[in-house]
Design a protein that fits this description.
InterPro entries: Spore_V_AE, SpoVA. The chain has 116 residues and is mainly alpha-helical. It has one domain (2-111). The chain has 6 helices and no strands.
Length: 116
């Protein structure tokens, strides 16, 4: 059942993104930004963590999880270090994922030739 709910929730997040592009005629970049902000807002009001508990990877893999990670990291660090935690928390939580994306992107660029 866990896999089914992950598939359904992850798919619904993707459907929301597709609807934003199709109905509201947004670019992919704008759609990604909207989904990141949506994940951040949902975490800010306390709704994204229960979604993660329910759907697992269906809620942690899509781009909305990045917004969740930013806000969640900021709140956690604010509780520990005060107001400076707003800045440091976002970078601490997301740095591994961003670093991995940069490193794997670089490896992909070195190993493969683009078709042009």
């Amino acid at each position: 059942m866990v896999f089914l709910w992950a598939f359904i929730v992850g798919g619904l997040i993707c459907v929301i993104g597709q609807l934003i592009m199709d109905i509201f005629k947004q670019t992919p970049g704008a759609t990604l930004s909207i989904l990141v902000v949506l994940g951040a807002v949902l975490d800010g009001v306390g709704l994204y963590e229960p979604l993660i508990d329910f759907a697992g990877a269906g809620a942690t893999v899509p781009i909305t999880s990045f917004g969740n990670a930013l806000v969640h990291g900021a709140w956690t660090e604010v509780e520990k270090n005060g107001l400076i935690g707003v800045v440091t928390g976002m970078f601490e939580v997301t740095s591994a994922g961003i670093s991995a994306a940069i490193i794997f992107g670089m490896i992909g660029a070195i190993l493969f030739k683009p078709k042009g």
